[in-house]
Design goal:
Distance between the termini: 25 Å
Helix content: 40-55%
Shape: globular
Largest sheet: 5 strands, parallel
Strand content: 15-25%
Oligomer: single chain
Number of strands: 5
Length: 160
């Protein structure tokens, strides 16, 4: 069975995000071994310099990369990534699981994004939209799209 892991910076805080995430985690259980790994955000002052932000991103990036096994297919969510339809994401996940590896890791950075090092280690850069979403919402949207992808692959009724 394929393993899907989401590594993200920060924790879900509001109950409604936790409830939504928990629902999709439950729905994903029949399709994959699903795991969430939340890593602590770098503490940074309220008016950071670009150097402070780079140091923060580098610190978070090192934490992220230390959690990635070499055989995993790493997908980083970032604004400069490629936008995929739900059907194309399903085909992408299916192709990886059939031809490459049984472990896919999605990365969601903190409020300042992801370090260049993490992006360069990734096999694919994925953009959810040209719009900007709060990271907590992005996590729930990603889970929904992963669930939708499995429904598409299994010809379920969820995707219309």
């Amino acid at each position: 069975m394929i393993k899907i892991k989401i590594i993200c910076i920060g924790k879900l805080k509001e109950k409604y995000w936790i409830d939504a995430f928990t629902e999709y985690k439950k729905r994903l259980t029949p399709f994959c071994n699903f795991e969430l790994m939340e890593l602590d955000e770098c503490k940074i002052n309220s008016n950071p310099s670009s150097f402070d932000i780079k140091l923060c991103l580098d610190s978070e990036g090192k934490k992220i990369i230390s959690k990635i096994p070499p055989s995993a297919h790493l997908i980083s969510l970032c604004i400069e990534g490629v936008e995929l339809s739900s059907l194309k994401l399903a085909k992408y996940i299916e192709n990886i699981s059939v031809h490459e590896t049984s472990e896919i890791i999605f990365i969601i950075g903190g409020s300042y994004g992801l370090s260049d090092f993490v992006k360069h280690q990734s096999k694919f850069l994925l953009s959810m939209s040209q719009m900007t979403f709060p990271h907590q919402m992005a996590r729930v949207i990603l889970c929904e799209q992963i669930y939708r992808a499995f429904q598409i692959m299994s010809k379920g009724k969820y995707h219309k």
